[in-house]
């Protein structure tokens, strides 16, 4: 149907071959014209049975008829596909639905907010009966109306064939990811096939350990700025703060320095670019929850769609300007150079994400275009700020709830830095924080993915227990039981970057501050990342250096 409409064309045929033919004179009013349609495909043959259109009114009526037929055809296809999917997925467990048409639409929202009476943040068991997930199986299927079908898997053995499959057949779902495409383009997150393979190879050097060592210095400096601001606020009597707000600014500050070598000062003053990134993340989530806005034609004409376009323009202009300026600088000055520590001689060295992308070449000597670099950089900024900020915030919250673990982490960090003239966490220090790393992993293990809350894999998954990541306790665990960065060929390329940043920020924060639970009940809110309704508030108490 869409194919037929796409190839439809309107042309006008005069009663004679010459448009200037008239009934006795050359005035336009004396000329008569017969309008006809030339349509390809099934629709064209059907409409060909209609009499020729002789006026604009009949043309309008015929246009409405075409639209009605197209809409009817589209609805029929959706309902037929829904029925076909229901038959094919009968092998999966099926939780009770609202009705045959809506399926589980609307029930999922009840799973996005939760708490427990003790004040902790525990997810309702996904593999046990509940009002929203009443299946006692490691998998089940949800029908989100007659439009979308969602299969949910909660066991490593079930997800292994999917995660380890070749990237050639592991395509991203356009249901949600398609909403990000106008913003992120064909970056690693959204691309597939040969395009993805080529970009993955070209981007891998950007996350080499030699580059990450430079980034660790940036993590320290951005954290220092955040902590200096916290001390000023505490001195003014403002000791309780929303961790999401504070830490997301810090991670954006770090990313801008790592990606562009750009000091935005965003932790201290507003930034149009930062505001645009926040707005885009919010608008993508809103669009996901509004079914009518899934239709591009309607969304781009809505106020939200127009705001999305404006925010995209701000982000894209910022990135494009930096890329073009840096490319011109490299052409004029050559690759960046700096002294090595061992010999003192000068050698070429990559300094940030943009430098790596600008100088990357494939096997044929071809690099990335400015548009491709812009897509990868925008993807890096999107994936790297909110996810890491959420992780750090929830780590600090859980350690605030469990002071015994917080004290043990602090003792480990203080022992590591004892006798030093500086508090800076170095690259080699990251592997010498075993218990702190266990606390970081425990925050991610049973809390983000359904598979991480499977009691068959994780005993007592509702309990915050870092010891489950002790080497002895991890020996017999399936390899895909813990996948905070996914697994297989399409795993997160920035996982070492994220873990390094979390270790640095958590370590410095616990050395300098005592964190305790803040105001009000905390209710988790599942959005693009895991948030808290009304913010995640913690009380900060500065600690003097030991």
UniProtKB/TrEMBL annotation:
* Pfam families assigned to the protein according to its UniProt record, in alphabetical order: p450
So what family is this one in?
A: Belongs to the cytochrome P450 family.
**Annotated organism of origin:** Aldrovandia affinis
> What terms describe the molecular function in GO for this protein?
aromatase activity; heme binding; iron ion binding
Give the protein's recorded name: aromatase
**What's its EC?**
1.14.14.14
Q: What does this protein do?
A: Catalyzes the formation of aromatic C18 estrogens from C19 androgens.
Q: Which cofactor does it need?
A: heme
**What InterPro entries does the database record attribute to this sequence?**
Cyt_P450 (IPR001128), Cyt_P450_CS (IPR017972), Cyt_P450_E_grp-I (IPR002401), Cyt_P450_sf (IPR036396), Cytochrome_P450_Monoox (IPR050196)
Positions contributing to heme binding: 492
Metal-binding among keywords:
yes
User: What is the catalytic activity of this protein?
Assistant: androst-4-ene-3,17-dione + 3 reduced [NADPH--hemoprotein reductase] + 3 O2 = estrone + formate + 3 oxidized [NADPH--hemoprotein reductase] + 4 H2O + 4 H(+); testosterone + 3 reduced [NADPH--hemoprotein reductase] + 3 O2 = 17beta-estradiol + formate + 3 oxidized [NADPH--hemoprotein reductase] + 4 H2O + 4 H(+)
Which keywords does this chain's UniProt record carry?
Heme, Iron, Metal-binding, Monooxygenase, Oxidoreductase
């Amino acid at each position: 149907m869409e194919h037929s409409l796409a190839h439809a064309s309107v042309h006008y045929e005069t009663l004679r071959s010459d448009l200037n033919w008239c009934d006795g004179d050359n005035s336009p009013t004396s000329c008569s014209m017969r309008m006809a349609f030339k349509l390809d495909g099934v629709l064209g043959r059907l409409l060909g049975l209609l009499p020729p259109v002789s006026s604009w009114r009949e043309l309008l009526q015929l246009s409405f008829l075409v639209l009605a037929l197209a809409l009817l055809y589209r609805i029929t296809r959706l309902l037929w596909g829904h029925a076909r999917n229901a038959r094919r997925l009968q092998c999966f467990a099926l939780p009770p639905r609202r009705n045959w048409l809506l399926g589980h639409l609307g029930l999922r929202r009840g799973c996005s907010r939760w708490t427990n009476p003790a004040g902790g943040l525990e997810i309702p068991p996904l593999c046990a009966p509940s009002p929203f997930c009443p299946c006692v199986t490691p998998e089940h299927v949800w029908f989100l109306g007659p439009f979308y079908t969602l299969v949910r898997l909660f066991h490593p053995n079930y997800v292994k064939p999917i995660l380890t499959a070749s990237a050639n057949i592991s395509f991203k779902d356009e249901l949600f990811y398609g909403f990000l495409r106008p913003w992120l383009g064909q970056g690693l997150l959204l691309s597939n096939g040969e395009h993805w393979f080529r970009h993955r190879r070209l981007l891998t050097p950007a996350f080499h350990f030699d580059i990450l060592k430079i980034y660790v210095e940036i993590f320290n400096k951005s954290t220092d700025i955040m902590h200096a601001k916290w001390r000023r606020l505490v001195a003014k009597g403002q000791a309780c703060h929303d961790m999401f707000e504070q830490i997301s600014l810090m991670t954006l500050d770090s990313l801008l320095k790592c990606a562009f070598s750009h000091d935005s000062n965003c932790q201290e003053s507003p930034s149009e670019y930062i505001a645009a990134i926040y707005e885009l993340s919010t608008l993508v989530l809103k669009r996901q929850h509004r079914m009518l806005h899934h239709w591009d034609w309607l969304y781009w004409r809505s106020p939200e769609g127009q705001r999305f376009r404006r925010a995209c323009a701000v982000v894209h202009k910022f990135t494009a300007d930096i890329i073009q300026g840096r490319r011109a600088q490299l052409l004029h000055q050559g690759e960046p150079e700096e002294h090595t520590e061992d010999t003192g001689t000068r050698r070429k060295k990559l300094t940030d994400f943009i430098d790596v992308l600008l100088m990357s070449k494939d096997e044929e000597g071809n690099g990335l275009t400015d548009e491709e670099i812009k897509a990868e950089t925008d993807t890096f900024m999107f994936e790297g700020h909110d996810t890491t900020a959420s992780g750090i915030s929830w780590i600090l919250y859980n350690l605030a709830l469990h002071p015994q673990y917080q004290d043990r982490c602090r003792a480990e960090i203080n022992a590591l830095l004892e006798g030093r003239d500086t508090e800076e966490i170095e690259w080699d220090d990251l592997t010498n924080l075993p218990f702190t790393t266990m606390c970081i992993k425990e925050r991610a293990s049973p809390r983000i993915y359904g598979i991480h809350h499977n009691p068959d894999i994780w005993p007592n998954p509702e309990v915050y227990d870092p010891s489950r990541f002790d080497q002895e306790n991890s020996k017999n665990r399936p390899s895909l039981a813990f996948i905070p960065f996914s697994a297989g060929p399409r795993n997160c390329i920035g996982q070492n970057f994220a873990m390094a940043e979390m270790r640095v920020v958590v370590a410095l924060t616990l050395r300098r501050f005592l964190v305790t639970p803040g105001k009000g009940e905390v209710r988790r809110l599942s959005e693009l990342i895991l948030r808290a309704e009304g913010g995640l508030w913690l009380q900060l108490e500065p600690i003097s250096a030991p």
